[in-house]
Amino acid sequence: MGKLEQKFVFMANGHYKPKLCIPYQKVAIILVVYKNPESEKQFQIFINNMLPKLRRQQLEFGIYAVRQQTSDIPNRGLLFNIGFQKAMTHMKYDCVIFHDVDVIPEDDRNYYACEYYPRHMAKRIDRNNYKLPHKDWAGGIISMNPEQYTIINGWSNMYIGNHTENEDIYRRIVTHYDLVRTEDKYSYCGSTSNKTELPNKEGCWSFEKTGRTWQIDGLNTTSYEKAEILNQKLFTLVDIGVISQKNQERLHESNTKYNQLRQSSECNSDVKQHGVRAVTWKKT
């Protein structure tokens, strides 16, 4: 990172504020990075490409990289929730953007700010052949304000080592709000990974679970035993140690409550759904 620090002298303590204008919003950008060479390289590419892009948009922003210190299979939802908690203790942000480290927007007009509704900003990613994997997917880049994030109870803490959380966050959002997507011609994104997103194979089970347990699984059940905050020049690193026993117990409690609900009902949502589309999921 040494050369990048010399290159981007306008950054300080992972934060940038324009000097010649009043920024439209204060934006926190939260990423999950892993302790492996591939992820570290992707993060450097992200920093090299995104810092000048964000500066051109004249935003006040902070970048938070959340990293799990242990070699356990990562839990992205939990790490995003922790990143949100830590970012909000640093500053009163108007907007929070949850970002895959290997996704880079190709057009500056994909504006890094929050709108009236939560917004999916990465509809067309090259690793997915510039197509949305399926209509219930909200991965890559997604923005919402802190109040909206709190109301949907953040990301689920239940998914470990897969990308089902991208369908889960979609369902949490459309349970409460309309979800908008960046206009097609501005939503093209490159990727430093060639791993194609596949449709969620858990299907109905995953969506029903979200509709019934979002209140008891998410931001309000996020806990951990150790967090080290390292203020770098270009970003703030949030190093997370062991996931706490308390959090494990809450995950078990959430699963137990869901299984009880599942035994007593069919796979039909009993919550109000908004756009992008509203569906009723049935068992197959």
UniProtKB/TrEMBL annotation:
It comes from Mytilus edulis (Blue mussel). Pfam families: Glyco_transf_7C, Glyco_transf_7N. It is a single-pass type II membrane protein. SUPFAM superfamilies: Nucleotide-diphospho-sugar transferases. GO terms for molecular function: UDP-galactose:glucosylceramide beta-1,4-galactosyltransferase activity. Keywords: Glycoprotein, Glycosyltransferase, Membrane, Signal-anchor, Transferase, Transmembrane, Transmembrane helix. The keyword Kinase does not apply. Residues 9-115 form the Galactosyltransferase N-terminal domain. GO terms for cellular component: Golgi apparatus; membrane. Residues 119-176 form the Galactosyltransferase C-terminal domain. The keyword rRNA processing does not apply. It is found in: Membrane. Pathway: Protein modification; protein glycosylation. This is Beta-1,4-galactosyltransferase 5.
